Structures are given as C-alpha cells and as structure tokens.
Amino acid sequence: MDHKALFCCFLVVFLCSFPSSLQENVTITVKSVTTIAQTDADFVCVTLDWWPKDKCNYGMCPWGNTSVLNMDLSNPVLRNTVKAFGRLRVRIGGTLQDNVLYDVGKRLPICQDFRTVTNESEGLFGFSTGCLNMSRWDELNHFFSDTGVVLTFGLNALNGRKKSNNTLYVGNWDISNALALIQYTASKGYNVESWELGNELCGGGVGAKVDAWQYGKDMINLKFVVDQVYRTSSSKPKVLAPGGFYDKDWFNQMLQVSGPDVIDGVTHHIYNLGSGDDPDLLNKIQDPYYLDGTAQTFRDVANTVKEFGPWSAAWVGEAGGAYNSGGRNVSDTYVNSFWYLDQLGMTSTFDHKVYCRQALIGGNYALLNNITFAPNPDYYSLETTHNGSPYLRAYTHCSKDQEGVTILLINMSNSTGFDVSITDDLNMYPTQYSSTSTPSGGQREEYHLTPKDGNIQSKVMLLNGEPLMLTTSGDVPQMNPISSNSSAPLRIAPLSIAFARIKDFIAPTC
Ligand SMILES: *[C@@H]1O[C@H](CO)[C@@H](O)[C@H](O)[C@H]1NC(C)=O
Ligand SMILES: *[C@@H]1O[C@H](CO)[C@@H](O)[C@H](O)[C@H]1NC(C)=O
Ligand SMILES: *[C@@H]1O[C@H](CO)[C@@H](O)[C@H](O)[C@H]1NC(C)=O
Ligand SMILES: *[C@@H]1O[C@H](CO)[C@@H](O)[C@H](O)[C@H]1NC(C)=O
Ligand SMILES: *[C@@H]1O[C@H](CO)[C@@H](O)[C@H](O)[C@H]1NC(C)=O
Ligand SMILES: *[C@@H]1O[C@H](CO)[C@@H](O)[C@H](O)[C@H]1NC(C)=O
Ligand SMILES: *[C@@H]1O[C@H](CO)[C@@H](O)[C@H](O)[C@H]1NC(C)=O
Ligand SMILES: *[C@@H]1O[C@H](CO)[C@@H](O)[C@H](O)[C@H]1NC(C)=O
Ligand SMILES: *[C@@H]1O[C@H](CO)[C@@H](O)[C@H](O)[C@H]1NC(C)=O
Ligand SMILES: *[C@@H]1O[C@H](CO)[C@@H](O)[C@H](O)[C@H]1NC(C)=O
C-alpha cells in the first residue's frame, strides 16, 4: 500500500439494520452520486507542541524531549514515520506559542528556553517566555523539507498586548517580531503553507483571551504583510485563525470584522473526551452516543463559515481527545483509534478540510511513543486510511488516486454481530430505493485492525491478525490487505475497525 493522503470526497452512507438477538444483518447503502463533502488533499494533519520537559499533569511528565525546541530531528524512526506519509501536514502550535519570541530582526536581549515560574503574574501557564532561534528554525525546516511535510506555523498573538483585568489582553497585536520571522522564512525559501495567529485566545480563552473585533483587525494586518512578503512568489501562504474553542458570537464577529478574503482557514480545537485523568475515559471512547455529541460543534463551525466567511474553510486545528496530555493507557492504546477514526470520518462529512491530531509526539495522546518514537496504535490506523446500529459506524470515501471507494467500518459493539452487505444506490432521489445494485464478481481489499490478545488497551495493533511493528531497520512495515469476493458480506470482529476498498465500485461522484 502506498502512503499518500486520503479522504477526498465523502459520500452519503445509509445504514439499515435488522436487529435480532445477537446477530444483525446490516446493509450499507452508498449513495454514489451524491458527494456530501470534499476534504483538502492534505486532510490528515498532526501537531508539534512547545511543551518543555517539565510540563507535568497528574503526576506524570510525558513530554520529555518531544517539543519543537528539543526533539531529536535526526532520529531515524521519527524521519521514517513522517516520511511514510508522503506529504504529512504538520501544525506547530499549542498553549505556549503565545509566549514564544523569535530571535530574528531586531535582536532580543536574551533568547532562552521556557523556565517554570512560580509567580502567577509572570509568564503564562506557569512558564516564562521562550525563544526560537534561527539555527533551530533552520534545522526544523530542513527536517520538514526532507520528510515532505506541509507546514502550518502558529504565531505568537499576544506580543505587544497588555494584560487588562483577569485574562483579557488588550491593544493591537505587535506584528514586528512575527514579520521578521516571516521575512526570514521567505528569504530562505522555506515552505510554510499557512501562518496561523494565536492559540486558544478566542471566546472565553483558556489562560488568556482577546476580543473578537481586535482579532479581526489583527488578521487584516497579518494578511497584508503575508501578501507583501510573498508578493513575487508563485504561491502565497494561507492565513488561519483563531486556533481555539468554538464560540459562535466570537467566531462570527472575527469573520465580520476581518472581512472578505482575509482569513483562509477558520481553525478550531476539539477535546471532547474531557480531562486525561477522567476514570470514565475508556467508556466514553466506546460509547457511540457520547462520541456523537461533538457532531453539533462541527456542524456549527461549518455554518459559521458558510454564513460569515464563505471564502474560508473550516479546519480542526488541534484535537487530542482528552486534554492535559491525554489519558495514560487509553489515549496511547488501541482503543483510542475508535475515537480518532470516528472523528476523521465525522469531520469530513461536516465539510472540514483539515484535521490536526494532537500530537505527533508528546503527551499520552501522541501517534509516536515519547521515548522510542515508535508508533502507537493510532499511527497505523491512520496509515491504513492512506489507501485511501449506533455501535457500527460507517464512512465512505473515494479511494485516493485509485479506482473505487473505501469504506471505514468501526464496530464498537462487544456483543452484537453484524454481517455487512454493501450496495450501490445510483438513485439521485433519496426517497426512492429501487435502483440499488450490489457490486459483484470483483475483489475487495480488506484491512482489519484489532488489538493484540483482544485487549483494547494494548499498545500493539494487529493488521489482519499480524502485529504492526517497526521493522528491524526502523522502517514502517508493509501494510498488506487480504482479498475477498466483493459479493460476500463483510464481517467485522467485535471492537474492531476495518477498511475495505471495493475496486469495482463505480461511484460517479468520484
Ligand atoms: C441474515 O442474512 C442471512 C443470509 O442472507 C439469513 O440467512 C439470515 O436469516 C439473516 N439474519 C437475520 C437476523 O435477518
Ligand atoms: C514518557 O512519558 C511517560 C509518561 O507518559 C513519562 O513517565 C516518561 O518520563 C516520559 N519519558 C521521557 C523520556 O520523557
Ligand atoms: C533530552 O536530550 C538531552 C540532550 O540531548 C539529553 O541530555 C537528555 O538526557 C534527554 N532527556 C531525556 C529525558 O531523554
Ligand atoms: C538554538 O535553540 C536550540 C533549542 O532551544 C538550542 O538547543 C541551541 O543551543 C540554540 N542555538 C544557539 C546558537 O543559540
Ligand atoms: C510577581 O511579579 C510581579 C510582576 O513582575 C511583581 O510585581 C510581584 O511583586 C511578584 N510577586 C511576588 C510574590 O513575587
Ligand atoms: C474588565 O475590563 C473591561 C474593559 O477592559 C471592563 O469593561 C470590565 O468591566 C472589566 N471587568 C472586571 C471584572 O473588572
Ligand atoms: C499503565 O499501564 C502500565 C503497564 O500496563 C502500568 O504499569 C501503569 O501503572 C499504568 N498507568 C496508569 C496511569 O494507569
Ligand atoms: C459490553 O459493553 C457494555 C456497554 O456497551 C458494557 O456495559 C459491558 O460491560 C461490556 N461487556 C464486556 C464483556 O466487556
Ligand atoms: C461486531 O462485534 C460483534 C461482537 O461484539 C460481532 O458479533 C459482530 O459480528 C461485529 N460486527 C460486524 C459488522 O461484523
Ligand atoms: C464471487 O462470488 C460470486 C457469488 O458467490 C461468484 O459468482 C463469483 O464467481 C465469485 N467471484 C470470484 C472472483 O471468486
């Protein structure tokens, strides 16, 4: 299987089930003439964060050497796992980004790492100001260019503002330090696909907040300088905002104040599983009714963009599931793929163009282990997608760069069986179900993901029964499907995930 980007367009899927005691027959009808959403070619995205090694939660310090500033960029496992995607979208950002200065242009008196501070009125979230020097920025860009990364960089949006009362910051954004970084980056020919302003400063804010009208004005400035700096380039980076939790009035106002053609991407964050130490985390991840709760946010953001910023696109700029570094033995194990793959499927049906997973490394919710950089189970879930009853979740998309469609099925049930038949509904009109046909005669490629020893908290994921592990040379293993007759029903084990590519499924909309 190749490792190129995935979901292109999503089709409408209907699930009909005929319940019986413990076995259900399910028919999935793919409305192959109706596209419900189209995602960006680089839909899958991961984040890199600034957290230093002394960032701790719940008595654990899971960041270690995994931050933008201290990650070992020469680690071969890191390089291989990023490269395996072909083009992986990466967003650099996170809580401390609004506390980072760039040592370029007018030189800073000191350029040093984040330090813990005890005096609340100094620093943010218990840390002093940090600093990115240009030799580290060069190293990062060489790594990104070597590994084919498509980069989004989150700029410090608090620079120059004054703390008013409580957590409100007032005054215009001081763009000079950001501008110096953008100019340096452009002059070096480094490819930044988008510049994002701020992290979680919108609405009520997390540790700090800025008013929406002020943000809208600042975005006009950011767009202006990006246009200026890149005026002779063939491609201009996008500008994104606000990189925080959705708040209807705040988002609407920011878009109204900034006006047409300023903000290219409206980025919002998702932590719908609650805190990382929630004892109920494991159950929430397996509960389809709970997981559905977040659909409303995706719908609302899509509506805000449609109504107030039709020139823009909705992105999930950061999503980690459980906040404060995720849940140990949950977010880093097989079961987390239920949440993650369901989110990828769900967001793309609500017209989001990009989904950035927190994090590639760092915390308990990362795709890669914090010490060895070896992939956690979720990494492979994602890899598999590269090819392109409430307890059974289904999403369908056109196979990427290939014939046919790919169906993602997640079986969250631990007790009810399903036999899935897939039919093609070529009917344009949703009320008529007569013209369905079952693809026949061809082959179906199946990728079944299950946990090792049936333990959903296992850190090892099996693909078609074989453990997915790095090869002895530290490479990502081959991911081979099993073939089956596409007229036979698809059987998905309890608590498992399957991708099926149906090669002879001709969907006109693809
Ligand atoms: C499911 O389908 C099979 C084969 O079509 C049939 O034999 C069986 O009775 C069905 N089961 C239920 C519960 O409808
Ligand atoms: C990795 O994370 C665990 C907790 O999740 C932590 O105990 C350990 O110190 C971290 N290792 C490094 C090298 O940071
Ligand atoms: C992090 O990297 C530094 C410098 O390379 C090294 O001295 C230190 O031992 C590393 N820390 C951990 C926890 O691996
Ligand atoms: C640049 O920053 C990195 C990371 O903070 C640090 O390890 C390195 O020593 C710095 N280099 C210079 C020349 O200051
Ligand atoms: C905390 O820092 C502020 C501003 O730097 C200073 O005015 C205040 O005295 C400090 N408080 C303590 C307890 O050190
Ligand atoms: C905070 O400041 C704003 C103006 O900057 C003011 O309108 C508001 O009443 C203040 N709130 C509190 C709690 O002091
Ligand atoms: C996670 O699992 C490991 C080994 O299975 C165990 O030693 C550790 O105590 C667990 N940690 C938490 C926070 O549950
Ligand atoms: C099966 O799932 C239900 C909730 O969906 C749970 O109450 C039950 O304990 C689970 N059974 C097993 C054997 O895990
Ligand atoms: C889902 O899991 C149940 C057992 O928990 C199993 O009986 C059923 O066949 C699975 N679903 C599908 C679609 O195969
Ligand atoms: C698939 O199954 C159908 C119906 O059982 C059969 O007619 C067809 O020959 C099979 N195709 C292949 C490639 O085995």
TrEMBL record:
Residues 1-23 form the signal peptide. The keyword Membrane applies. The keyword DNA damage does not apply. One of its GO terms (cellular component) is plant-type cell wall. Pfam families: Glyco_hydro_79n (PF03662). Gene3D superfamilies: Glycosidases (3.20.20.80). Keywords: Glycoprotein, Hydrolase, Lysosome, Membrane, Secreted, Signal. It is found in: Lysosome membrane; Secreted. InterPro entries: GH, Glyco_hydro_79. It is a peripheral membrane protein. GO terms for molecular function: beta-glucuronidase activity. Endoglycosidase which is a cell surface and extracellular matrix-degrading enzyme. Cleaves heparan sulfate proteoglycans (HSPGs) into heparan sulfate side chains and core proteoglycans. Belongs to the glycosyl hydrolase 79 family. This is Uncharacterized protein.
